[in-house]
Amino acid sequence: MNLKDTQVYKILIALIAIVSLLALFGGVMEPDSALYASIAKNMVLRNDWINIYVRGADWLDKPHLTFWLAAASFKIFGITAFAYKLPSFLFGLLGAWYLYKLAKDIYGEKTGLISALILLSSLHILISTFDVRAEVYITTFTLAAIYHYYKAHQGSFWHIVAGSFFAACAIMIKGIFVLIPVFGGFIIYWLLTKQFKELLKLKWWLAIALIFIFIIPELYTLYVQFDLHPEKIIFGKTGVSGLKFFFWDSQFGRFFNNGPIKGKGDISFFLHTTLWAFLPWSILFYTAVVNLFRKKNRVNLPAESIMIWTSAAITFLLFSLSKFQLPHYILIILPQFAIITALYLQKLDGKNLKAFWYIQSVLLIILLAAIIFIGFYSGFNFRFYGIALPFVGVILGFFRKISFQSLIIRSIIVAASIMVFLSAFFYPSVLKYESGMQAGKWLQENYPNAKASVLMHPDAYSFDFYANGEPQYFWSYEALDKFNAKKDLVIYTPESELQRLKTEYHAEVLKSFEYYHITKLTGKFINPKTRAQVLEHFYLVKIH
Which of 30, 92, 206, 481 sits 20 to 30 Å CA-CA off 428? Predict the structure, then answer.
């Protein structure tokens, strides 16, 4: 590969990274992002990094590391949306670097750069840069563990330590199941290549021992908050073990749907999720997977490719068979998808290249048309962007020559346009309907000394994050009556509770806010003529 090619791919990676920075300056979205941000905020306010509280009560669901990272950022930069999103953004870049290193070591630098580029420009990664949850962290830590264990397989002991550290970090983000994508690919690779002795080597058993040593902080916090206090009521009962939940209920309980947190599974869920989550590369990816089933297409690939394929395959199968499924779970194996797609892209030539150049062009036109349509149809204040998008078409015209490189460049330009659209125009517009965020900000600006509280509403996570201090939750009017410090008390409450507050407490309405669940968009909400039909109303009320 000549120098010009490497420079082009590095420039494109830099372009995606730069436009992704826009997401750091947007708001925190409900429900999960706002929930995680409020947990980290309360850690800092309480100066308690062991116990996790939600709505003022003990909370047992996710491990601590996501919140520790956000809380550490709050300590440095202050409690802001920027500080919450920054660690995830930086770890996302680290994940792309590890992907580059892994693919480069196995296939070469060109594949490494293209793989990193594909990952960073995939739609769900772009969305997750704005709507920060835990999956970017898991993706990076899992990938880093795979890379270091791959290097350890080649003989370096210190990579065992590094791999185990990152595997432990992944566990302290999501749970023990992450060892399946980390080790599953290696085990199947060793079995298929008859390297049975690898399974007995001391270094791999040492790696497992190190993982359990590195997760001691998580185990300690769970033991202190829950196992030492069986009297606490968790999931409606006492005697709940945090350690048992961590190792069993949160993982296998969700898979078999017999734990305290249940869902509904659909075996085809991640097949159609990948179609949109991996845009603009999903059609190429699915074609690449079909292509791999032909033996002649696997002949010249390194044997280590088995590790990549099977790591993705068993994780995808596990997710598909699980009874608890969410779209962002797919992020953990997008790096493997990126490698598979990058390898297939480089094989395209002649008629196949021409066919996919046109297929990709049609797909990109559809994506741009969708943005323009939403811009003009929704009535939000980003019509300028819809008008500006034709200039993107002009830029694409400069790369109209049918070639492998122009196919990649055109796809990245459209991906960058989507990111600008989401971060600078679309999300800021819909966040006006995240009433908790709007109410919290308004309260901070107009009543900085008020005691923020929430009445009869369980999902006020963005209000939790943006409001003054740690809001007080009232689950009944009896609890409100017993609360003695009513001076400067301002309540955030749904419309259903407003009349009673006015009648019994002589409440003064300070301001009303429109609400919509913005992570579940519908046509009625997008359409300005029907938007009012799906809006709810929340109020800030002062008790006198």
Answer: 92
